[in-house]
Amino acid sequence: MPERLGRRKGVWIYVRRRPAEISAEIEPRINIRISTGIRIRDDKAGVKAARKAEVIESELEASWRAKAGQGARADALAFEEARERARVLALPYKPAEEAVRESIDDIHRRLAALEVGDRRHDPVTVAAALGGVPLPTILLSGVLAEVETFRAAALAKKSPDQLRKWRNGRSLAMSRMIDVVGDKPFDQLTREDALLFVDWWNDRVVDGEVQATTANRGLTQITGMLSAVARRHRRPLDKVFSGLLLEEEMSRPRPPFSPWWIVNRLLAPGALDAMNAEERAIVLVMINTGARPSEIANLRAPRIHLNSNIPHIQVRPDDRVLKTEFSWRDLPLVGISLEAMRGFPDGFPRYRDKGDTLSKAVNSFFADHGLRETERHTLYSLRHSFKDRLRETSATDEMKDELMGHDTQKPRYGDGHGLHLKLEFLQRIALAPGMDVPRPPLLLLKSA
Hints:
The chain is mainly α. The chain contains 19 helices and 6 strands. The two termini are about 35 Å apart.
């Protein structure tokens, strides 16, 4: 059995004792048991579970480092306060070792600023003027906390699930780098550190454990965080990761479902009956609107207009961040999409802010019931099918982009195309059970 794996109630679990160097304040558990969520019967050798255990361990150790680094965060806050106080005094903040190297006139200006009122009796103001607060040491383990602090306003716009994914991805990426190069001050990273880390990723790609896109995503997240913290704290930072992204194969887009497959397989009598009602309705709404699964799952009652002259849904942020500013749009409801939406006038509470859960459930259903046109088809392929059907109409590129929620590459004026014009095009491409649509070539049905 792989190291750090145990069994509990038919499921692989991650097991370990609290390391001696970790205090009970940081980790109260002596014996740590965390489920991998992988059933033993599905992974008898524990191969998948071992990979999951690596992720669990990285996240666990990252949380320990973050708790241990709270003192460093206090130092950073003290430095921020000193720099802001110096700004109020119309002085550039410099640590004492740099301030003493200024010209005599500049030093006199700092001293003179303290002679106003009772400033020289205020230790905080004196420290700000004379550089009494040292530059904080921000370890790699504290970088994410720094980013979250000064981007709090932007992050507050994300939904809980969006924030979880944003945080977890970056936490895991940084934890992996710390495992390779150590938990050193972020501004002391070297090119050699970067090369070691990229080599570590490259070995995993070569071994087939991950794809190059996964590695590059992690590298991009790290460089983004490092650059943001360096700018925030006015630290010089060498571009140690410059030019080190791994080469990727040309990515293949998700194939679209053919209209024939949608009509004769997905909309065949009884094909979706075993789905839960919310999943089935979201699939049907997606077919004739082309909306993203998460956009439909997160609809609120005020955004669902079933009694309008033109029934429609409104894609809006509503306690979450849209994928792009162009995602903000209104979409008419026609045919099966309208009927499905009428069954859920208040939206889909089961999958609200759970887009990943929805996609996983539907994709599993499609696979288990033979509803994938090829092995590469997913729920998102319905959106690609919608775009392909739009291409066969006389819709302008701007109309297509507006319906899809894509960047039009043009300045945005007014409210875009009205519901009446959008409705005209959606009625042309709407699919319904029993429609007579041409069957695609056999080669397409078998292609991967």
